[in-house]
Amino acid sequence: TINTTTGQTEFIPSQHDTDAKTFSAYYGNTVIQGDASANGGMNELNALLNMIFAKDEVAKFVVRRLYRWFVYYEITPQIEMDVIEPLANTFRSNNYEIRPVLVELFNSEHFFSVPISQAAIIKAPVDAVIGVVREFNVQLPPLADYASNYEIGRNVGQWLYAMNQSLHEPPNVAGYPAYYQTPAYHELWINADTLTYRNQFTDYMLYVGGTIGGYQLIFDVIAFASSLSNPSDPNQLIIDSLENLYSMELSLDARNAIKTDILLSGQADDSYWTSGWLLYQANPGNISYETIVKTRLQALYKHLMNLEEFQLC
Predict the structure, then answer these.
(1) Which residues, 6 or more positions from 189, have their beta carbon under 8 angstroms from its beta carbon?
(2) Residues in contact with 289: Cβ distance below 8 Å, sequence separation at least 6, in sequence order
(3) What is the DSSP letter of 224?
(4) What is the DSSP-derived secondary structure letter of residue 209?
(5) Mind listing the pLDDT tens digit for each residue in 28-71?
(6) Which of 7, 17, 137, 274 is the most buried (most CB within 10 A)?
(7) Nearest CA to 60 among 76, 74, 77, 80?
(8) CA–CA distance, 310 with 245 (Å, rounded to integer)
């Protein structure tokens, strides 16, 4: 129990059952003898833990949880044999220390296998929202400005709530269902309602944004494009943008279609974008040139962040 005065746990011998405890055939009909000593509770608890951890399934169970968190939720019979069982052996041989298991997993060829580890799961709302804010390098108030940061956090929290992830408020002690609920797991993040809010958030940050405590919170698409390797080349602009915003590659045909339909507004010649970008660069104070570039970039990034591939990590 817990001593309410000291806040420490304590063992009360008079409330301890000192009879022998017999377990099922699954545990080999193990009998844990009753212990009436001052340390009887801890001694029997240690015996119980030793009995449980003697089962190979315990190590496999824990390793499967680690695998589903760090790699992918689906564990095929082949993965069970080639990955789970060897990691479980590592777990057992290292006295059930987690770190050696993770080191082995993270350094394995399997962990870096593209079909499994790249664009494998749907982003959690907090990853989707905070991730894209960081990618666009949105400037936030200094930490000392508590009032502004509180308002920003509250605003972000409202978006996350709409996407089914109330930050720091999981629905129960098991956590957010998308992390553990079979068989859908991460697919639970997306439905007809939450996907709409995901798209609305990126659209809002592209076109509207907000001002809190004198700080404008908006995606500066021109600054983002300017940070890329060669923004005057529409092909390289799209490649670099995808490298920052996506965790997977798009085919050449898909990139060309996006370039022509969105960035070039249906024009066939790359110079349609290049000349507009260079004119703006040469005349940064020209509102007309800036508007043309900004409008095309907003359309490009709206399209990219509304595609399903953007929701994957």
Answers:
(1) 122, 123, 124, 125, 163, 164, 165, 178
(2) 276, 279, 280, 283
(3) H
(4) -
(5) 999 999 999 988 999 999 999 999 999 999 999 999 999 988 88
(6) 274
(7) 80
(8) 7
